[in-house]
What does this fold into?
Amino acid sequence: MAMEVTTTNVTLRMVKPSGDLWLTKKTVAEGEERVFSKEVYLGTNDSADNWMEVDDEYKSAYEKSLQPSAE
It folds into this structure.
């Protein structure tokens, strides 16, 4: 059986935040770590509505919450 090669043109959808903000998913599944990015390429079943803009303060607070507390 021979392998079939197909060439397809696709449209890539990219989301970028305003100004100095970051993008992160609006909802994160339990056990999944929140990801921050300056650009996101949307997959077939993804939508810009699934993402939100956050500032450095939000990002830093989240990252700090992941660090073990020094007790």
User: Anything to note?
Assistant: The two ends are 64 Å apart (CA to CA).
